[in-house]
From TrEMBL:
Record localization: Plastid, Chloroplast
Residues covered by the Rieske domain: 87-192
Residues passing through the membrane, by range: 503-526
Pfam families, A to Z: PaO, Rieske
GO cellular component: chloroplast
Protein name from the UniProt record: Rieske domain-containing protein
Highest taxon listed in the record's lineage: Eukaryota
UniProt-recorded Gene Ontology molecular function terms: 2 iron, 2 sulfur cluster binding; metal ion binding
Signal peptide residues on this chain, from the entry's feature table: 1-19
């Protein structure tokens, strides 16, 4: 597989393509849980259902096919994991709005990110100390963030500097402040340190060697997705699904290329795991995969070109937990070099193809998310993991077993801890109020197309991407201008008495209407969700 192929115009599916190159149920002890006890009766029912679906004989037990359900013995981990003592990827630096606060979430913690008067990134708890209104619904005034409920204003250090309702000369209460979080801009990504006990540990801040190399080319996209970040990570570390789920999405993913994969774990610790994998039919291309706590997944491939020079292709996924059943993904796909024609491909075309890939998986992953929440048992009781495709998935769930006691909620291979509180669904404003309050895409959206629906492509990607937003706005303007000009040409054709002018004006109207249709089609390509042919009504 050539380097030019790896650097083709379809970045995300190609990134996934780089990653691709029945038994009898036995009785087991009740799974250990943290914070949540599984009912023995419920568990027995689930096992009975699993047994009923198994019709294999002893000879059918394929130990060489299925991964062992029991976890291997590991040395006791001395370090105690705490999800707060970590850096989380908040946003792409280039996409942070210049003129508005941005509301984001890490697990169940809501934060607001913005730039102060000097352009310095600031992050606070997304809650006004007055009456708990969201600061992300506010505005920036002279570099300060203002709560639009009563007009309280806060500096970058969280100190309140203005309360309009106080009488002249009155002092602002010391308690009128907002909690702040440390943020760092590293390699084009904004990271937040969530701990309220310890100062930022810079040794834990991720650093990606390839992306720091001079001349290393990368394309980044950001996506909001309607399922848990653990399911997203599972999907991204699963190269076996690419030929099936993304068949013909680009020039490389093909159903007939589905094959056994050879996967080997090389390292494992409380900080994650790493290993290598290769396609059994193409063993020359060895991929290196690593998962770094809490939510960084990287896949690297080294290729030696005809001149003997090493060339690198890297797929980097930064997966932030954005609440129960929600996640935010930053995708970075890079290479040492790219084809000359690659620079001619518009970024919006690459981005829409990335969106298409996620939409192809969305139905599977959303339903998987629903089942895990409903069944309330570890994945050991639900998954049938194959040696030739699911090694990373099982390794990830086992990692959760080791660190789960230090996480707000999780589902591991043998243990789990469900959320203590159900997620609160915030209803978006509708009608005229929504049109006024959400006039800028970065702050929401206008109309049905832009409604904050996690299955809507505009909401999932375009509101987070300045480039795509600009293209969408220009396409709308061009489409409307072409239609108006065509109407003017038709009017002129009706009013003119000269036959040749009538023909010319009508021909011009046809060309203008054609142009309007082209702009409309591109608009739809960027904003409309992908639906498989057999699912269309």
């Amino acid at each position: 597989m050539s380097l030019s192929l790896h650097s083709s115009l379809f970045l995300l599916p190609l990134c996934k393509t780089l990653q691709q190159s029945s038994s009898i149920c036995t009785s087991r002890s009740l799974p250990v849980t943290h914070g949540y006890r599984i009912s023995p009766i419920a568990l027995a029912k689930k096992r009975t259902r699993l047994k009923q679906c198994q019709v294999a004989t002893v000879e059918d037990i394929a130990e060489d096919v299925l991964l062992p359900r029991e976890a291997e013995e590991l040395k006791e981990i001395e370090e105690k994991y705490d999800w707060r003592e970590e850096w989380y990827p908040l946003y792409l630096t280039a996409e942070v709005p210049e003129d508005a606060p941005l509301g984001l979430t890490v697990f169940h913690k809501q934060v607001v990110l913005y730039r102060d008067f000097n352009g310095v990134l600031r992050c606070h708890e997304d809650r006004c100390p007055h009456r708990l209104a969201k600061l992300s619904e506010g505005q920036l005034v002279d570099g300060r963030i203002e709560c639009l409920y009563h007009g309280w204003q806060f500096e970058g250090d969280g100190k309140c500097v203005k309360i309009p309702q106080l009488p002249e000369g009155a002092k602002i209460p010391r308690a009128a402040c907002v909690r702040t979080y440390e943020v760092r801009d590293s390699q084009g990504v904004v990271w937040v340190w969530m701990s309220d006990k310890n100062p930022p540990n810079l040794s834990k801040l991720p650093w990606f060697e390839h992306y720091a190399k001079p001349g290393f080319l990368d394309t980044s996209t950001i996506h909001e997705l309607p399922y848990d970040h653990s399911i997203l990570l599972e999907n991204l570390m699963d190269p076996a699904h690419v030929p099936i789920s993304h068949d013909r999405t680009d020039w490389t993913a093909k159903r007939e290329d589905a094959q056994p994969l050879v996967m080997k774990v090389k390292e494992r610790s409380i900080r994650g795991f790493a290993g290598q994998w290769v396609r059994s039919k193409n063993p020359a291309f060895m991929n290196s995969l690593s998962f770094q706590a809490p939510c960084v997944l990287q896949n690297n491939l080294q290729i030696v070109d005809k001149k003997g020079v090493p060339q690198y292709v890297s797929a980097l996924f930064l997966c932030r937990p954005a609440g129960q059943g929600k996640s935010m993904l930053i995708v970075r796909f890079g290479a040492s070099s790219s084809p000359i024609l690659f620079d001619l491909i518009p970024k919006w075309f690459i981005h829409q193809n990335s969106c298409k890939v996620f939409e192809q998986d969305m139905g599977f992953l959303s339903s998987q998310n629903e089942v895990l929440i409903r069944e309330k048992v570890p994945t050991k009781e639900l998954y049938l993991n194959l040696k030739f495709s699911d090694t990373w998935v099982m390794e990830y769930r086992k990692w959760m077993d080791r660190v789960g006691s230090g996480m707000p909620y999780y589902v591991g291979h043998e243990t789990l801890s469900m959320p203590l509180e159900a997620a609160v669904i915030e209803q978006a404003p509708v009608g005229a109020a929504a049109a006024v309050s959400a006039s800028m895409p970065a702050k929401g959206g206008v109309g049905e197309l832009y409604a904050p629906n996690p299955t809507n492509r505009y909401y999932r990607h375009i509101i987070h991407c300045k480039g795509c937003r600009i293209v969408v706005k220009r396409l709308e303007i061009l489409k409307n201008v072409m239609r108006l000009l065509s109407l003017a040409a038709i009017t002129a054709a009706i009013l003119t008495a000269e036959r040749q002018w009538k023909v010319a004006m009508l021909a011009l109207a046809v060309v203008l209407l054609g142009a309007a249709q082209v702009f409309s089609s591109i608009f739809d390509l960027i904003t409309r969700n992908f639906i498989r042919e057999h699912r269309r009504l």
